[in-house]
Amino acid sequence: MLSAEIIISDLNKIRKQAPLIHNITNYVVMNVTANAQLSIGASPVMAHALEEVEDMTGLASALVINIGTLSPAWVQAMIRAIKRAEAKKIPVVLDPVGAGATTYRTKTASQLLQAGPVAIIRGNASEIRALVETNAQTKGVDSLEVSGAAIEAGRQLSSKYASTVSISGPVDYIIKGAQTIAVYNGHPLMPRVTGLGCTATALTAAFAAVNHDYFQAAAGAMAIMGIAGELAGESCLGPASFEISFRDWLYRLSDKEIFARLKIR
Amino acid sequence: MLSAEIIISDLNKIRKQAPLIHNITNYVVMNVTANAQLSIGASPVMAHALEEVEDMTGLASALVINIGTLSPAWVQAMIRAIKRAEAKKIPVVLDPVGAGATTYRTKTASQLLQAGPVAIIRGNASEIRALVETNAQTKGVDSLEVSGAAIEAGRQLSSKYASTVSISGPVDYIIKGAQTIAVYNGHPLMPRVTGLGCTATALTAAFAAVNHDYFQAAAGAMAIMGIAGELAGESCLGPASFEISFRDWLYRLSDKEIFARLKIR
Amino acid sequence: MLSAEIIISDLNKIRKQAPLIHNITNYVVMNVTANAQLSIGASPVMAHALEEVEDMTGLASALVINIGTLSPAWVQAMIRAIKRAEAKKIPVVLDPVGAGATTYRTKTASQLLQAGPVAIIRGNASEIRALVETNAQTKGVDSLEVSGAAIEAGRQLSSKYASTVSISGPVDYIIKGAQTIAVYNGHPLMPRVTGLGCTATALTAAFAAVNHDYFQAAAGAMAIMGIAGELAGESCLGPASFEISFRDWLYRLSDKEIFARLKIR
After folding, report:
1. pLDDT above 70: percentage of residues in chain B
2. How far is Cα A162 from Cα A119, in angstroms, rounded to an integer?
3. Span C79-97, mean pLDDT?
4. For residue C240, what are the contacts with CB-CB under 8 A and spacing of at least 6?
5. Which residues of chain B have a CB within 8 Å of the CB of C45?
6. Is some CB atom of chain B closer than 8 A to the CB atom of A148?
């Protein structure tokens, strides 16, 4: 299903093609996710005005929709962009940040899923559960262990929307129908840096732009995240120097580190 | 009134409980203050839409209101959040960024103070003065020396709103009624990093979430800021490497550094 | 036209006067550009609400207008700020981010240029071309080589609006009427960090605040950018450590490095 060779091939395509990724994302992480995409070799653009959102999606090779600091005007723009992405047949990656925390977020995430095809839904366990369980509870936007219940929720979600579902946690699970890839790469400091979940989403879109097997693309992005995280964790003093080293490693990663460290099943 | 033991106890509570802090703050610092809260052990969330702001405050243990890039829709959300915080009896920490610079900011800060109880008002000397003096002048959002006039303004403000007032500067002054704590920790590079005042506010909310003696909480947060700043200042090359090291130290701080360095009166 | 002595004199004025720069800029780079201005010695403020935008411009020594994440309400505020800057006779620096990518951006950039005098237009080659050529194409907000066509477009733009035009690329070209300065300083990692174009704009405004020969100011800012970039490039591991070192060098730069490294023609 996935191998180091495929991930390396995707990464090289990103670096060579520099695909334009249109991001409609939250204020907290805009800088961080743009930098992650640049580091990996993609070309980020941010635009949310109704006046231009469709034009910008029309130029892009993938679309990121992230509801981290949503408001009605932005949701309207997201819907337009998703419809344009559908018409243009480019992948949409949805990050339902904080779904389950408030009714507005949970409802909006569902509304976006119904606006058009979403290639990949990427969230943490509580967010994914909130999209299928009516009584799920989220504590803010924190990541949580990925339990069997979350994997089952991911499977339901994948089936309902014909999407790949990518659940991040100490172990990441990427689900498409009956298939599952588990990614064991990562580092415990990652949840101590804001926006690393959103970064996973941003990198997932870069991979989906060059590999239209979205199940592979989603898993490859999580593997690269995890490997860069492990490398960063070896030489940092805390979450800030970790974040700097992580971004450097997204840029520096070579075949050697990917072959040596990839831990997927 | 305050000791290293109390500060250490508060810090351990934050690290253990990971209190959820709801931040309605400015675009410039969202990433920085979320990261500061994560580094110290708290759990930040940002949400400003009228559709969800009360629900999010309802999940939180403290609320940050920061007017750094305000606009009418955001002010309306801030007022709703303050009222929800009042109903839920959680502390509100207000940062009147740029009060005195424009009439709109000064008026909005006053409007927010009247919307519900504010546990702690945290600003620089010119902002605090602007909230009580009709003819005070602010130059942008810069910090200034904390003069006797600022302390007197802080005392009036504390009395008028039954709030703790925390004034940052080369020496920080925390005021509640007739009581004052002066914090001598800090580093001259701190004003060269954008959003460190807002970071002080964000950390103050984390302390207030676990210590309902808000006078202690406000002073403890400023002491931790100052100590982390001193440690960062010892190994940096300029404001950017200072900022990275400062955030690492928020995560790394142990009892030893706090005991060795705390300078309060 | 320009010498190391003039650049050093401008830099010292910025450090001594700490001019207040009013920035109406995009969400992605607000933190980064505020920090760049602080590092170089200027005093940034961000404000976009119609209720205060004119008051804030009224306090400032220069105005930055950056359309990176524009929307109609923000454009309205930008126009008001430009008119206030005209009345107050302070320089406006316009960054037409993404002009050419969408019709909305290209039209808005033109609308802003007609709202009042713009001292300096600073963009990359494709953005500058989009402002004079009706069929120019931009791929997102990426920088491109500065071709002869871009220089010619810059000259037309300079003539039409009586502005200095500053085009960034591997070599930067600063154009005013028939005059041109080429800046050869810089580093290949610079396009791998988001917002360094916007940072160039932010620093250009700081220089324009203290040197009303805007042709000199624009070129001096690009030279400082490039020199700090070269120094940062000598000790970094990737784009993130580059960004940290770059900001440190903006703060650390002394006459020595400027004399030794300046490469302009």
Report:
1. 95
2. 8
3. 98
4. A35, A39, A243, A244, A245, A246, A247, A248, A251
5. 98, 101, 140-141
6. no
Q: Which tokens hold the place of A190?
A: 């990652």
- Contact at CB, A192 and B38, closer than 8 angstroms: yes
Contacts of B26 (CB under 8 A, 6+ apart): B66, B67, B68, B69, B70, B97, B198, C46
Q: Does C20 touch chain B (CB under 8 A)?
A: yes
What mean pLDDT value characterizes chain A? 95
Closest residue on chain A to C72 (Cα): A49
Buried b (16+ CB within 10 A) or exposed e, C59-80: bbbbbbbbbbbbbeebbebbbb
Instruction: Count CB neighbours of A83 within 10 A.
Output: 15
CB count, 10 Å around CB of B254? 9
Q: Hey, is B140 helix, strand or coil?
A: coil
Pairing state between β B20-24 and A179-183: unpaired
Query: Do A74 and A104 touch, CB atoms closer than 8 A?
Result: no
Which residues face C64 on adjacent strands? C23, C93
Q: Answer for the pair C208, C120: CB distance below 8 angstroms, yes or no.
A: yes
- Cβ separation A103–B34 shorter than 8 A: no
Q: What is the extent of the structural domain holding C10?
A: 4-261
With beta carbons under 8 A apart, name residues in chain A contacting C27: 27, 30, 46
Rounded Cα–Cα distance for residues C56 and C44 (Å):
11
Q: With an 8 Å Cβ cutoff, is C84 touching chain A?
A: no
Contacts of C215 (CB under 8 A, 6+ apart): C1, C164, C174, C176, C179, C181
- Token pair listed for A109: 């995430």
Q: Which chain B residues contact residue A194 at CB under 8 A? A: 31, 34-35, 38, 44
Residues near B213 by beta carbon (within 8 Å), at least 6 away in sequence:
none
Instruction: Chain C: list its partners (3+ Cβ pairs within 8 Å).
Output: A, B
Shortest CA distance to B50 belongs to which of B29, B21, B77? B77
Q: Do A239 and B39 touch (CB under 8 A)?
A: yes
CATH value at residue A188: 3.40.1190.20
Strand partners, A46: A23
For A49-108, the pLDDT digits (tens) are 999 999 999 999 999 999 999 999 999 999 999 999 999 999 999 999 999 999 999 999
Q: CA of B14, closest CA in chain C: separation in Å?
A: 27
Number of domains in chain A: 1
Mutate to test the interface with A, among B31, B57, B78 (most CBs of A within 10 A): B31
**Site of tokens 């992605």:** C28
The identity of residue B144, as a single letter, is L
Name the pLDDT band for A15 (thresholds 50, 70, 90).
very high
More confident residue, B140 or C70: C70
The closest of A73, C168, A151, C75 to B48, measured between CA atoms, is A73
Task: Quickly list DSSP for C96-141.
Answer: -TTBTTBHHHHHHHHHHHHHS--SEEEEEHHHHHHTT-TT----TT
Phi, psi of A155 (to 5 degrees): -65, -40
Of all residues in chain A, the one with the smallest CA distance to C104 is A52
Element (H, E) at C246: helix C239-252
Q: Does B138 score more than 70 pLDDT?
A: no
Q: Sign of dihedral through CA atoms C201, C204, C209, C214? A: negative
User: Taking CB atoms and an 8 Å limit, are C55 and B102 in contact across chains?
Assistant: yes
Determine whether the interchain pair C252/B241 forms a contact, defined as Cβ–Cβ distance below 8 Å.
no
Identify whether the C-beta of residue C24 lies closer than 8 Å to the C-beta of residue C53.
Answer: yes
Strand partners, B180: B175
pTM for this one? 0.96
Nearest Cα to B180, choosing from B190, B169, B170, B167?
B167
The whole-angstrom distance between B105's CA and the closest CA on chain C is 8
Query: Which of B103, B140, B240 has its CB closest to that of C247?
Result: B240
